[in-house]
Specification:
The chain is α+β, with helices and mostly antiparallel strands. The protein has a single domain, classed as Cyclic phosphodiesterase (Cyclic Phosphodiesterase, Chain: A). It contains five helices and eight strands; from the N terminus they run βααβαββαβαβββ. The strands form two sheets. Strands 2-1-7-8 form a four-stranded antiparallel sheet, covered by helices on one side. α3 crosses α4. It is globular, with a radius of gyration of 16 Å. It comes from Bradyrhizobium manausense. This is Calmodulin.
Length: 180
């Protein structure tokens, strides 16, 4: 099992992202994001247990979220990680708050325990749209990403700690409303 520290879109504003999940699922061998049973999110760190305990991860998230408000994140672009497999994701327009949260999580738990892609200097803020793009649909998926031509704003309003697979929320905290 693995432990992840996240901020997620619990309310209705995440519906636009979920609609994109359904579009991206057409390029996958099976719908990756709907299958999770979990809302749109940003992951700040993933740890393999038992190296890091659930309570340790949750306390790190609480420290990172201390004094923070809900995050209103704008997206205008779909990008991809080459993989394999190819992964499509939404790129945040202004990720200063996300980077601040990530730095706080990394300060609370030695990044050496974190999976490499989530360590300082390697982490890319992203909201995943699909993780199981087939090789046969690779070019269509990249064309889809390139043709994305709109702006959407999503409210990320819950900080949480989950274990997976399957995704199970260990602890969560609603973030206070307001602008920072």
């Amino acid at each position: 099992m693995a432990i992840a520290i996240n901020v997620r879109a619990h309310g209705n504003s995440g519906r636009e992202v979920e609609q994109l999940w359904d579009q991206v699922a057409a390029f996958e061998d099976e719908p990756s994001m709907r299958t999770l049973g979990y809302r749109p999110h940003f992951t700040f760190a993933i740890y393999d247990s038992p190296a890091i305990a659930e309570e340790t991860a949750w306390q790190a998230m609480l420290r990172a979220a201390a004094g923070e408000m809900q995050l209103r994140i704008e997206f205008r672009r779909v990008r991809w990680f080459a993989g394999p497999p190819l992964v499509l994701w939404l790129e945040p327009v202004d990720d200063a708050a996300l980077r601040r949260w990530h730095a706080a999580v990394c300060a609370a738990i030695d990044p050496a325990y974190c999976r490499p892609h989530y360590r300082p200097g390697r982490w890319t803020p992203h909201c995943t749209l699909g993780t199981r793009i087939t090789e046969e649909r690779h070019h269509e998926a990249i064309d889809f990403a390139g043709s994305f031509n709109r702006s959407m704003t999503v409210l990320f309003d819950v900080a949480d700690c989950v274990v997976f697979p399957p995704v199970r929320v260990v602890a969560e905290q609603k973030l206070p409303a307001g602008a920072r």
